[in-house]
Amino acid sequence: MVKTASTMKKLGSPAPDFKLVNVDGRIVGLNEFNNKPLLVIFMCNHCPFVKHVADGLTELANDYLPKGIAIVGINSNAA
Q1: How far is it, in rounded angstroms, from Cα 67 to Cα 2?
Q2: Does the pTM exceed 0.70?
Q3: From the CA atom positions of the chain, what is the Rg in Å?
Q4: Which of 25, 37, 58, 59 suits 67 as a labelling partner, its CA being 20 to 30 A distant?
């Protein structure tokens, strides 16, 4: 059980600004997505459940990136 209860913004709310380190070491922020619709996936790269759906996430990206949907995966277990 978690010590702090999760909270959720209302669906359709503007995303809060963020700056995170990308896999290539570059800092990425919300402003780089140019107000495109943004799908944010909180995941952990070494989680067995994420590994199980990795191919499906690739298919999702291949289907939606050409339609102008930006996708960000945030590894919530990494510092």
Answers
A1: 37
A2: yes
A3: 14
A4: 25
**48-to-1, 53, 55, 56, 58 alpha-carbon distances in Å:** 19, 9, 13, 14, 16
Tokens of 69: 């949907």
Residues forming a β-bridge with 74: 42
32 to each of 1, 17, 22, 27, 75, how far by Cα in Å? 35, 11, 12, 10, 19
Tokens representing 52 are 């199980």
